[in-house]
Design goal:
Layout: E1 3-7, H1 13-26, E2 32-36, H2 39-44, H3 52-61, E3 63-66, H4 80-87, E4 92-98, E5 110-116, E6 120-128, E7 136-141, H5 144-158, E8 165-170, H6 178-191, E9 197-202, H7 203-212, E10 219-222, H8 224-237, E11 245-249, E12 254-258, H9 275-287, H10 291-307, H11 321-332, H12 338-341
Parallel strand pairs: 1-2, 1-3, 3-12, 5-10, 8-9, 8-10
Antiparallel strand pairs: 4-5, 4-11, 6-7, 11-12
Helix pairs in contact: 1-9, 1-10, 1-11, 5-6, 7-8, 9-10, 10-11
Length: 342
């Protein structure tokens, strides 16, 4: 039985994580959870925001399921999410956005944003340029090595998609050295993958095109901050951040999470949508060679959302987090296992 590090997170984190674990275990996942803390929850217990014991657990298990962690705006500690990605070199952030709720802005959206996860503006190299704090400067880092590995990851990922179509997003018309380097590496790799349809778009045009017609795209690869923004945009096309899972993948380690934040304003009210965390846990199942549990979990969520009788408030319903989870578990009873199919 594989051991997986579990960080329930802050705010609504424990509520949605508990729902996700309940669903995948009902779907057949067998996992030993090593629960650790980080972020605000760790600070409230008198620990560092990212305690050494948490890092050691992840280092040993090599796989983590993480609930949302609070990052203060403007002051306070830096993002624990960013720190985890840097510490374990989780260089590729994979964020699927797929239509699961009928009657949304678009039907049949199926997009994946692959975001470089370790450098760019999120490298955090910034400072005030004078003692009066009248101006600040931030430095973006883009390297050939980091660009090459994430774009190569994207090409490999696209090879398993129904549409073998990859769009690289940049701002090379203005940021000629940093975005220009990312684009240059992408074009070089495209020459090695003639079987993949490849094109590139400038970030502002890409944002507009996604809103006008998302069906013209399939998989998107881009730099850190552009990927952060575009993945939220794509989530908005399919119902919001409550529908958006994410995987952070390195050479030997991986962390799975929801894209959304800790939403402290609704914490404890049991109205959070656990779909994103359930889908992230399903991705985790695939990663640890328990794909059937992941497939069944995803199918159960899709069935509940398609039937539309039980939805959380963000999707126009009135169900609590627990009630939605109950319905997904019931739906699993109608989804056969591979053994039953045989």
């Amino acid at each position: 039985m594989p051991t997986v590090t579990l960080i329930k997170g802050d705010g609504i984190g424990p509520e949605v994580v508990d729902a996700a674990i309940r669903v995948i275990e009902a779907a057949g996942a067998t996992i030993e959870w090593d629960e650790q803390v980080a972020g605000v929850t760790a600070v409230e217990r008198g620990l560092e925001t990212l305690p050494p014991v948490t890092l050691d657990s992840f280092r040993d298990s090599r796989v983590c399921l993480k609930g949302p962690l609070t990052t203060p705006i403007g002051s306070g500690f830096r993002s624990v999410n960013v720190a985890l990605r840097k510490e374990f070199d989780l260089y590729a952030n994979v964020r699927p956005s797929k239509s699961l709720v009928p009657g949304g802005r678009y039907d049949d959206v199926d997009l994946v944003v692959i975001r470089e996860n370790t450098e760019g503006l999120y490298a955090g190299i910034e400072h005030y340029i004078d003692t009066k704090r009248s101006a600040a400067e931030s430095i973006t880092i883009v390297t050939q090595d980091a660009s090459r590995r994430v774009i190569k990851f994207a090409f490999d990922y696209v090879a398993g998609r129904p549409k073998q179509h990859l769009t690289l997003v940049h701002k090379a018309n203005i940021l000629k050295y940093t975005s220009g380097l990312f684009l240059e590496v992408g074009k070089e790799l495209a020459d090695d993958h003639p079987e993949i349809e490849f094109n590139d778009r400038i970030i502002d045009n890409m944002a507009m095109q996604l809103v006008l017609d998302p069906h013209q795209f399939d998989t998107i690869v881009t730099t850190n901050m552009f990927g952060d923004i575009l993945s939220d945009l794509c989530a908005g096309l399919v119902g919001g951040l409550g529908m958006a899972p994410a995987a952070n993948v390195g050479e030997e380690m991986a962390m799975f999470e929801a894209v959304h934040g800790s939403a402290p304003d609704i914490a404890g009210k049991q109205i959070a949508n656990p779909t994103a965390l359930i889908l992230a846990a399903a991705m985790l199942c695939e990663h640890i060679d328990q794909a059937e549990a992941g497939d069944r979990s995803r199918a159960a969520v899709e069935r509940v959302l398609l039937e539309g009788q039980v939805r959380t408030p963000d999707l126009g319903g009135s169900a609590t987090t627990v009630e939605f989870c109950d319905e997904v578990v019931r739906a699993l009873e109608r989804i056969p296992t591979a053994e039953a199919v045989r």
